[in-house]
């Protein structure tokens, strides 16, 4: 039984955000919703929260709106081998232990300390000019600007490495020698790095056509813009993409915009409703994708196309393009204000180790 299980207990009146903080903070990756007598009402995982976000539920909503009310449980004292078999059969990582209708423990699956490894290629787009960050980018590629004491690109690579990825391709254009001289072939990081040079900018999707033709036909690729600072769980992304047999999975971020005026709806000249400074919510492209091999291998060499156009082409052919909501830290370092914010945030971001 895990000794820290009581830290993941949460009351039904708590919010999705409060459950998310528990899931991200505690290694158990689960929250147990209990009443005042510790009766189990439901469990909440990362996947439950992402599904709630896709339904446009705000993070201030009660946790009961996303919790699983019929979780797998077991009586306290159940044989550990049986518990592990149950977790493997149901593809779950933990089982609440019940006694007298109360939660008295949490059993987690027994796994080795060896991290799971992924052979999936990772493609990092690092060829942009970073014009909005001049003069910082006059003599330095934007992905090589330092956040804290490390370049953005190194932070991104380390995040992938800690998630179990080791095969990297980096797309370059502006000042490629700065990037290649810093990382080399990746051997100092214990990974493989190869460089894809764009002689002319090909858009966010066109560089896919320059990847080696011999990449595996059964391993989806993760692509990310090189100016993004995030601690997203890439393992969850690739598993989501694979489990749902998607052509492309695009990571999305919730963006809220508050209209600074009272909005009036009317019919002819008659006012029907007045809403003062309403907030509108949208999902925006987070610049991170999981892409199946048949998609990235279909992009011709030296063909200019952006990812939105590529995804639109797939949808027009009735392909499967899915959304994966990002609730973790995410920042697109496109402007000077973003760069300064990243300098402040880097010390509080929790990265997977």
TrEMBL record:
InterPro entries: CBS_dom, CBS_dom_sf, Mannose-1P_guanyltransferase, NTP_transferase_dom, Nucleotide-diphossugar_trans
Domain of life: Bacteria
CBS domain: residues covered: 1-59
Alphabetical UniProt keywords: CBS domain
UniProt xrefs under Gene3D superfamilies: CBS-domain (3.10.580.10), Spore Coat Polysaccharide Biosynthesis Protein SpsA, Chain A (3.90.550.10)
Keyword Aminoacyl-tRNA synthetase found: no
Classification via PROSITE patterns: CBS
GO molecular function list: nucleotidyltransferase activity
Protein name listed in UniProt: CBS domain-containing protein
Taxonomic path: Bacteria, Pseudomonadati, Pseudomonadota, Gammaproteobacteria, Enterobacterales
